[in-house]
Every structure is written in structure tokens, then in C-alpha cells.
Amino acid sequence: MNDSPAAARDLFHRRLEQSLMAAFLLMVLLVCTAAILYGREERRDRIDSATEQAATLTRALEEHVRRSVGAVDVILQTIATDALARREIDGLPRELARKRALLPQARWLAIYGPELELQGASGDDDVLRDAAALRATLSATLRASDERLHVGPPLGDAAAPVIPVTRRIVGGDGTVLGVAVAMLDSEHFERFYRELELSPAHSLVLTRADGLLLLRYPQYASMRPGLDMSTLSPVFSAPRPLAGPVTLQAASAIDGVERLLTYREIGQPALLVGIGQDLHPLLAPWRQRVLTLAFGVAGVVAALTLLLWAALAQIRRSAEAERRHRETLEHKVRERTAELEHANEELRAFTYSASHDLRGPLHGIHGVMQLLRHKHGKTLPEAALDILHHAENSVANMVRLTEDLLTLSGVGRRTLEPQPVDLSAMAWEIAAELADADPEYHVELRVEPEMSVVGDPGLLRIALHNLLANAWKYSSRAEEPVVEVTSEVFNGERIFIVRDNGAGFDAAHAHRLFQPFQRLHSSREFPGTGVGLATVARVVRRHGGRVWADGAPGAGAAFRFTLPEPEDSTLAQPA
Predict the structure, then answer these.
(1) Which residue windows are transmembrane per the record (predicted)?
(2) Nearest 5°: phi and psi at 415?
(3) What is the spatial distance between Cα 158 and Cα 215, in angstroms, rounded to a whole number?
(4) For 448-569, where are the E strands, in sequence order?
(5) Are 451 and 422 in contact, with CB atoms under 8 Å apart?
(6) Using one digit for the tens of pLDDT, what is the confidence trace for 465-474?
């Protein structure tokens, strides 16, 4: 369809405007995404900081509880030991009162007999009137199978409860003599909470390992001491024992408030200490920053909108000039492409001429020289014969060069016919041909058996022939020439190797070996055209593989190449 120049420019303008709009929307999306990511990162940072603070606080709380309970445990053990030693109760109240004065965290100490009869106490206390609850705790201690410290359900007023801590008294013969009990004062832990100077959003929790709530500060009407938390807090479903501080983020099943809950476990007695923090006040500064950021993003979007319209206006003014410039560039590209195609065509023509048309004249010249030597060789002077010999050698080299160029050119044009190829058998066949060509030269050939690939048999034979002929030639001056054809697997890729113990080369110039007419040894040392390895490289690349070489002067050379495996063989198209 032939459009007018004005219609073409309008179409171009519309498409350019659409592209700019897409870029504008992408920019807005990137800005908004960056803002969202920043907000999420800021939120995560605040939560991480609060988590670290809670871990430190729970560590301090754990130490406080551990020391408080540990001191009580020592006193109870002393009471039990004294009871076993004296077996008398007359001075027991006075002794308990003295020991009670050593424990600011304990409100009351007492010893009960095996029938739960009170044998002595540090003084009167309202808890004594709560005999039923206390008796249940003491009975549970008597039924226990060990003498470890036990923590019972909280007793007394919910606003200021006490926590019974008990230990069995057992005689040397295993007879249960009674129970030593201490009432931990909840105010002792409340003072510690106040000393931490926590915010109102923080809460301190002390529970037994089975989920029984012992204390909570600040006090909360829906979380009275004695509440079973095992089904209300997710920490009790976590694997036990807890590995260090465990932080959970969850909405409370009691009031629906979302909190960060950090717990630590105390092994003996089995307790959990926790610090809770309401997320709403914790994230209040973050929400303020997010709001400020939202206004900032809106301002950036507005500025981008203005820039968009300014850019569109500028593009409309310069559209015609850009169109002319583009047409000029396209014209130059077409010219350069045509010149490149012409140069390639001339190169192909030259290659064909050098490798085909010159073959006949060269063979003719070589034949004339041989005829001259045959008919007049006996009458020509020695100097003329030397000149004739050099000329014959030069023509023979030229013939070999044209043949090699023809082979190199044919590798690029030939259509590949991939099929399974036995490289081991092919190597033995080529070696036999090389040995027949020079029966006086003996080489020890070592070929790895059953090396199979998928490729074009003709091209692979050309490549392997060049590699073996190369190894044959450059190992000719070794005392015991050895040529090896092997393979190895490296990083899952099979690599084929043709190695000799001949003259070798400087590895710093290895890259030149596979370029046409590049030689690292003079033709006087080792004759050749410098095209064979270039042909090898082109064959391997046509098969989708790689070829490289390494060696050292006087230490031989190794030529390595890869070919695609049969299941993923993707051979290159004709070049």
C-alpha cells in the first residue's frame, strides 16, 4: 500500500507517542514499585529491630526468672535437708521466717508432712485460707516421680497472685517425708517490668511449659492468671525445646490484636518467658513515612507527566528531520551491504579460481618439467638441474596449496549428511594410508577404541586426516615417534584429542594455528601449506564444535576438539 508522506509522518508520530506513553507508564510503574519496595523494607526493618529488642528483653527476663527461681530452689533444698537432719518442728517456723527474709521474691515458706499436714510456716498468709487450691498443688508434688522443682497454678487474688513452687522431701530410704513450698510474689516480677521502662504496647508473660499462664503485665482482664494458653498461643505448637529466642507474629485469639511475640524457654523448672509488642503502635512511624512517600510519588508522577508532554512536543518539531536522517542512514546501509556482498562474491570467485582454474596449468607446468628432465636431464649442467629441481618443488607446493584451498572452500559449501561415525576405525584407516605413503618412517599409534560421534563422514575424515598428518609430520624428528588419538570427559563434555611427542610449539601463539597460511615452523623445517589446520577448524565449527591446541617447544602438541553428542547434535548450516 502506497501512503502519502504526510500520512506516513502521522503514523510515525502516533507510534512514537504510543511508545513514549508506554515508557511513561513503565516509569510510573517503576517509581511506584520502588516506593512499595522501600515501604516494605522499612516495615521489615522496624519489625526486625523490634524483634532484636524483644530478644534482648526476653534474655534479661529469662535471667531474672532463672535467678529468682534458682534462689528459691536453693532455699527449698536447704529446708528439705534441715528437715531430714532434725526431724523436729518446734523451731521450724522461726527457721523458715529467717530463710524467708533472704528471699525478697518469696511471700511465704512452709513445710507440709506426707499427709499434707502443715508442719511449719514462715508466718500467716491469706493464701493459707485457699487451702483447696494449695492442697491440689501439694498433692500433685507428692505424686511426682522425682524431686525436681515444680511450679503450681497461681493462687490468691488475680490482681496480685502468688505462684507456688514445691519440692518433695525424701528420706535416705526413699520414704516421702513431705513437701517444701515457697510462694513467689508476683509483685517481684512486676517491679522488674517497671524497671525495664517498656512502652504501654509491651507486655511481659510468664507461663508454664504446658501453657498455664502464671503472670502477665500489664494485667489484662481476658488473660487472668491460670488461663490455659496452650491452644491460644502458637508458640506451644512449635517444636520443643525452643532453639534460643523464638519470635512469632500473630493475631491474638483472645482480643484479635496483632502482636510480635518473643519467647524463651527455661529448662528447670519448665517455664516460658515472653515479651509481646502490639504491631499497631510499633508501625505508626512507618505508616507516617509511607504517607509522606505516597505524596512524594504523586509529585514525581506529576513531574513525569509534564516532561512527557514536553518531550512529545519536541519530537513533533523534529520528526521531519529525523525521518530524513533515517532515510539517509538506510541508504548508506544498503550501499555497504551491497559492497560487502560484492566483496564476498569476488572472494568466492578468487578462491574458486585459485583452487580450480589454476590446477590445470600447474599440472601442465609440472608435466613439462618432468618431460624436460626425462629427455634432457643427462645433457643439462648440474646448476640447471638444481634450478629445475627447485622449480619442480615450487610447482608441487603450488599444486598442494591449490588442492588445500579447494578443500577449504568445499568445506564451507558442502551440505552436511550426519550419521554415526566410528572415529577409532577412521583413525586406523588414515594411519595405514600415512604409513603406506612413507614405509621407511615408523610411528607408534595408540587409538582409544569405540570412539563414536554423529557427523558428516567425509568432512570428519578430512579433519582427522589433517590432524594425523600434522602429528605424523611434526613427530618425525623424535627418537621414538608416538601419536595418540584418545578422548576425555570434562564438565560433562566429551573432548577428542590428537597428541604427538614431536616438535611442539609456543603456546602463546596457539591462536594463529587455525588461521589460513599461518605457520609456527618454517617450511624448510617441516613442509606444508598452512591450510590444513584452518580446514580442521572449519569442519569442527560446521559440526557445532570447538577446536583448540596446546603444546610446548620440544615437548609435543595436543589438538583437542569437541563434537555434539548424538542426542543433541545440531549441526551448522552451510557457510
Answers:
(1) 20-39, 290-312
(2) -80, 130
(3) 9
(4) 452-455, 482-490, 493-500, 547-551, 557-562
(5) yes
(6) 888 888 888 7
